[in-house]
Design goal:
CATH superfamily of the largest domain in chain A: P-loop containing nucleotide triphosphate hydrolases
Number of domains of chain B: 1
Strand order of the largest sheet of chain B: 1-2
Radius of gyration of chain A: 24 Å
Largest interface: A-B, 35 and 27 residues
Number of strands of chain A: 24
Shape of chain A: globular
Structural class of chain A: alpha/beta
Helix content of chain B: over 70%
Number of helices of chain A: 18
Distance between the termini of chain A: 63 Å
Oligomer: heterodimer
Number of strands of chain B: 2
Distance between the termini of chain B: 68 Å
Bound molecules: adenosine-5'-triphosphate, magnesium ion
Order of helices and strands of chain B: HHHHHEHHEHHHHHHH
Number of domains of chain A: 3
Largest sheet of chain A: 6 strands, mixed
């Protein structure tokens, strides 16, 4: 019997000359969970966009259910039972969950849209597939994990038999990931087929039946997951041995760099996001902030980076106040910031790589001379960073938009690491980037730490926090609920208990270690 | 006339009636502006579209002797020009604001040019025997003492406008097309991904805004006045856009905002009889627009600050009560 999907000798040459797919053969069987992995820029998203009709292949054939097909648009793909959940969600923020799910095919009652019916459809779908959503909540009021479930339900409502998920877990908390996996298994039990892109090899092992590895636009091979080890997959992806354990020298703690006292932030909506946060970060150490996403970590980072006002409290870098300054002033005080939302705060999509690497310093010599930008120098600088940080881009003059997600992140990392910061705030620094690049960012963080930089590391990835940090604090509901002065001595279970709010340390006891 | 006479006349039923009368040619284009704004295409050409319909309506009614035909063709012309604007923006990728402004300038000059060709007069169409749309006496209301002068005997388009507030609400929130218009305005890519034709939806939205602006223009020249005058819209198309935002981009809000601007306009008409320099008085509607937009922006921020302050108090009270956390 032929495979459900067979993509044969697919090549994709983008107009800018990037060969994103190079004679790719890729096949998927009915009812399987097929993981697609590969370094940033390997061509995974491109291959899936071709299958979903968003990009036309330059060469090659697609066979679906044994028949040659030409998929010309996403709608075409949807009609053939292919659904795709993108990394950036395709939802209408002010519409409710139910309205989003029926959008484009609203149920009618005497010519008018029947919202009751839309709610019923949503609830039925939700129950049928075990994907919990609040049908009448608006999208902008629900967490990311639920938005993703809405996307999946939307695809199912359109009758998707094949579901493509592009890095679905990158934005999820560990709990949400577990729920997603349960739902995916339920889908395949019902005969659906799932293609799953991820950078986390642990997830590949956990969920997939088979895994296809891509590198540099080519398929390196397809393996039965049960027969492959994580290290083996990683080696196929990167083409060399990857060290997934971080090797770091003992901490050489210097003086206080960042001192935060009683920091409180109340959002414009009136929600209290930070409650009397106090802690220090010392030169030469990495302070990890663990916590389930949405417990104030984002706000903490944004307040410190000058992106949000503090309601009260203080924060000093080398004795100078950080709060309520413009981001430029904050940066001039020696603060670097890798933002968690790279598309909003990290890069300007239509500016080129070189411009993106100097946005925090373009106004200073040597980038500006006599009131004019030194374009040549900036370009050279950008090209230098491309080499130094192995960013996959032809050169620094290409717009960041044309880079793959992981390479965009590398542009941000390159800029922030190259500014000789006193304090580096790294929020989800390895989200969405491949194992090779993750290893690289981790090494760079350790390097900065050895140079005496103070590092505040916020990550939803517990492994990352535990392996990199010297000290760890746990945030829950906007407050610090636990501090662990020696990151080596804490277990995942213990952190988990604090993250879920089951345990809490006495504030007076914590004070000595913060 | 002394000040207290003016004051008394403002507090009269007739004044309320005049507010409604002058609010109509703001409300109609504002409803059109609302539709296109929600589709993500700001129509700054409302002003020009109104002028076109105002002139065409007068001319056609004068030549055919049929006011309704004038109204129909006037509105149709305005809609066609709105479609042209959509073509510039959606097909030729021209900037919507710049194209809109171009249409305004062309309409202002073009209507005067056509007026001159037809009447040898550059100021008004007073030489044409044009018709007006009827006023309507509401059966029971008409006889009532206070409500009668307020609500009865308005131009038919005033009642149409009120009806349209509700129809457009139903359209935007209860029909497929209306919902698609809002979806396209908020996230065009997402709307496109479920098969909604983004370009076609925006075409329709701009055309509808042309229809509404056209009705506003007809109301100016075949109801509010009984002739066409050069640049007779006097910025109402822009005030309508302000009303869209002041009304929080919702039909009922837009109606209230239009009434507010109508009030400012009617006030300036009343005060014209005082010994105040007319320039000051004529400034009222425009100053009120600027002021209203500023107040709107400030109170939005003030509300957020106030909410934050109250929560902070509550938090502190909580901290004091529990002795920390
Ligand atoms: N629209 C585009 N125009 C030009 N080049 C593109 C475009 N989209 C992607 N590319 C290039 O094609 C290559 C493959 O990109 P793709 O997004 O498929 O990678 P990926 O495997 O999904 O990577 P990641 O894991 O970082 O998301 C990259 O080099 C990228 O720069
Ligand atoms: Mg990708």
């Amino acid at each position: 019997m032929s495979s459900l999907i067979e993509m044969r000798q697919i090549s994709k040459l983008y107009p800018n000359g990037v060969l994103a797919n190079d004679r790719v053969d890729f096949s998927v069987e009915r009812g399987e969970i097929h993981a697609l992995v590969g370094e940033n820029g390997a061509g995974k998203t491109t291959l899936m966009k071709i299958l979903y009709g968003m990009e036309a292949p330059t060469e090659g054939e697609i066979w679906l259910r044994g028949q040659r097909v030409h998929i010309r648009s996403p709608i075409d793909a949807i009609r053939r039972g292919i659904g795709m959940v993108h990394q950036n969600f395709m939802l209408i923020p002010s519409f409710t969950v139910a309205q989003n799910i029926v959008l484009g095919r609203e149920p009618l009652d005497r010519g008018l849209v029947n919202y009751t019916e839309a709610l019923r459809i949503t609830e039925q779908l939700s129950k049928e597939y075990g994907l919990k959503v609040e049908a009448d909540a608006t999208i902008d009021s629900i967490p990311v994990g639920m938005r993703q479930r809405v996307e999946i339900l939307k695809a199912l409502h359109w009758g998707a038999e094949i579901l493509i998920l592009d890095e679905p877990t990158a934005v999820l908390t560990p709990q949400e990931t577990r729920e997603l996996f349960t739902a995916i298994r339920k889908l395949t039990e019902r005969g659906k087929t799932v293609i799953f892109i991820t950078h986390k090899l642990r997830e590949v092992k956990e969920i997939s039946d088979r895994v296809t590895v891509m590198r540099n636009g080519r398929v390196m091979g397809t393996l039965k997951t049960a027969e492959a080890s994580e290290t083996q997959i990683a080696r196929m992806m990167v083409g060399r041995e990857v060290f997934m354990v971080v090797d770091k020298p003992p901490v050489q703690r210097g003086g206080v760099v960042l001192q935060v006292r009683d920091l409180t932030h109340i959002a414009e909506t009136g929600h209290v996001r930070l409650r009397n946060i106090s802690f220090n970060v010392y030169a030469g150490e990495i302070l990890g902030v663990a916590g389930v996403e949405g417990n104030g970590q984002t706000e903490l980072v944004e307040v410190l980076a000058g992106l949000r006002p503090a309601t009260f409290g203080t924060a000093m870098v080398d004795g100078q106040s950080l709060l309520n300054h413009t981001p430029r002033k904050v940066r001039e005080l020696g603060v670097s910031h890798i933002p968690e939302d790279r598309l909003t705060y990290g890069v300007a999509l239509d500016a080129n790589v070189a411009e993106n690497t100097v946005v925090d310093r373009y106004y200073r010599p040597p980038f500006t001379r006599n009131g004019f930008l030194s374009v040549g120098f900036i370009m050279e600088f950008g090209n230098g960073l491309i080499r130094q940080f192995s960013i996959m881009a032809p050169d620094a003059s290409v717009p960041v938009r044309a880079l793959s997600g992981g390479n965009m992140q590398k542009v941000v990392v390159a800029r922030e690491f190259s500014s000789q910061p006193r304090l580096l705030i790294a929020a989800q620094p390895t989200r969405g980037i491949d194992v090779g690049a993750t290893e690289f960012v981790h090494q760079q963080l350790i390097q900065k730490r050895s140079e005496g930089c103070a590092i505040l590391l916020v990550s939803a990835d517990l492994n990352e926090v535990m392996s990199l940090s010297d000290r760890i604090v746990v945030m829950y509901n906007g407050a610090i609920v636990g501090v662990f002065p020696d990151a080596q001595k804490v277990t995942e279970e213990e952190l988990g208990a604090y993250m879920l709010g089951l345990k809490k340390q006495d504030p007076a006891e914590m004070e000595a270690y913060l | 006339m002394s000040f207290d006479v003016v004051l008394r006349s403002i507090l009269s039923a007739a004044f309320v009636g005049s507010v409604i009368r002058v609010a109509t040619p703001i409300l109609l284009p504002a409803l059109g502006g609302l539709i296109s704004e929600l589709a993500g295409v700001t129509n700054v050409a409302l002003e020009g579209l109104m002028l076109i319909a105002a002139l065409v309506g007068v001319v056609i009614s004068a030549f055919t002797g049929n006011a309704w035909l004038g109204c129909l063709i006037g509105v149709a012309c305005s809609a066609v020009v709105a479609i042209l604007l959509a073509y510039f923006h959606l097909n030729l990728k021209a900037d919507i604001i710049l194209s809109g402004l171009a249409i305004n300038i062309a309409s202002s000059g073009g209507t005067i040019f056509i007026l001159y060709l037809l009447t040898k007069d550059k100021g008004s169409s007073s030489k044409l025997a044009s018709l007006s749309l009827p006023r309507i006496a509401i059966p029971v209301l008409d006889g009532m003492p206070v409500l009668g002068p307020m609500l009865s005997r308005h131009n038919v388009l005033t009642y149409v406008a009120v009806l349209l507030v509700f129809l457009i609400w139903v359209f935007l929130y209860r029909t497929r097309l209306g919902i698609h218009i809002r979806a396209v305005g908020e996230n065009a890519e997402a709307a496109g991904s479920v098969g909604i034709n983004v370009r076609r939806t925006r075409y329709i939205a701009l055309m509808l805004s042309g229809v509404m602006a056209g009705l506003g223009g007809i109301n100016m020249s075949m109801g509010y006045l009984n002739m066409f005058q050069r640049d007779m819209t006097a910025g109402r198309g822009f005030i309508a856009l302000a009303a869209v935002h002041l009304g929080n981009r919702r039909p009922l809000g837009v109606a209230l905002a239009s009434l507010f601007f109508g009030f400012a306009d009617a006030l300036s008409n009343q005060l014209g009889s005082l010994a105040i320099p007319p320039q000051w008085v004529q400034m009222i509607p425009y100053a009120a627009t600027v002021l209203a937009l500023v107040v709107y922006a400030l109170q939005g921020r003030a509300a957020a600050v106030e909410r934050a302050r109250r929560l902070q108090e509550r938090l502190q009270a909580h901290v004091e009560a529990t002795g920390g956390e």
